[in-house]
Design goal:
433 residues; alpha/beta; TIM Barrel; 2 domains; five-stranded parallel sheet; four-stranded parallel sheet; 37% helix
Length: 433
Amino acid sequence: MLVYTDNISNRLQYTANFIAKESGIEKIELTQDRNSFNSFSGPKINYSSKKIAETEFWLQPHSLLFESNIEEKVIQCFDFNGSKAFFKTEGDFQFDLFAATFYLLSRYEEYLPHSKDIYGRYAHENSIAFNEGFLNVPVINQWLILFVKSLKQKFPAFSLKEKVFKFLPTYDIDEAFAFKNKGLLRNAGAAVKDLVKGKVRNIATRVKVLSNKKEDPYDTFLRMDEFHQQFNLQPIYFFLLAATTGKYDKNISPKKKNLQSILQHHSKNYSIGIHPSWQSGDYSSLLKKEIETLETFTNKAVTISRQHYIRFTLPVTFRLLIEAGIKEDYSMGYGSINGFRASVASSFYWYDLEKDESTNLLLHPFCYMEANSFYEQKMSATEALEEMLHYLNEVKKVNGILITLWHNTFLGTDPMFKGWKEAYQQFIKEAIR
């Protein structure tokens, strides 16, 4: 496919590459040569302010992709085939699909002045998707389906590669154990807190676990293995390996043999990545050390990651990941609400908006995390199952990639999470149908 434009910018090239991949178009070539565009006999898009040829698909542009600065934009959403769209223009499509897609994928709004949540993260309440009511749907994928339909009406012989739905379960291992391997002082301190809060059952369970009379509530790894084998799943695990514990870094020390054994087992059977500690967000030098720790115990290069607490700031965090050798990241989602942070159910390369250039860091967005349902949205396991099924259905509609985020803690025997393991199992059965 040939696209005419008055200006071949980095932003336009990046967006064209993404749209080609996600629409099943073999290649989108950009040109500024009107004669070449007019003589081209195949499907072609005119991405300029005025019509050029009779046989073209005219997509009138917004100015966004021809700019290099970052500034507040006037966003006015309108109803578009049952969804929402913005950057309304004239032409054969009702809005500038390229500019709107870039705005959402680049997370343009996260570079603008905004309020933070209690963890210092970009607050989802700032986002256009939340405020306009399309956070719970992959609106970019929906747009592309309608775009392809319009292209085929203009060019009936135009053939495209069909996409297929994919499901990828992922897990963050923030705490491998509830009680075991935490040492006398940590357990004693935690027991005192339980006593003050009247959690007598926790104290009894702790004693039984530490005396090997009961299984640790979070140690559910073997059952998870059986579950994955039963349903032929290939999940990804992300391990928190902070050298020292902290308020938000509660895993056991990576020096503990039991944790090392878990790392080695999972590296042989699954893809694993680093789960950078909260502390590494304050002291960037810790990131490389934690990656090196994981590589030491697994004897494998570590190139994938997901931020602990989904704590990241653009562009700083992603630049640090690239510098540390990370090639793929799974943090693109919210740690405060479920939904599509980048409004897409597809993987895409991170665009460094400040440098105004595409990068080689591949982002894999997740849309569902059970901790959001439980802690933030205060849902029961039954309500969470309904929410999960919503995201499953929405991603299936667009043949996208459904990435879910769970923790081993929810799948164990802790009474606080009663019913959540069963809800997850029921969801998996629906997801692999």
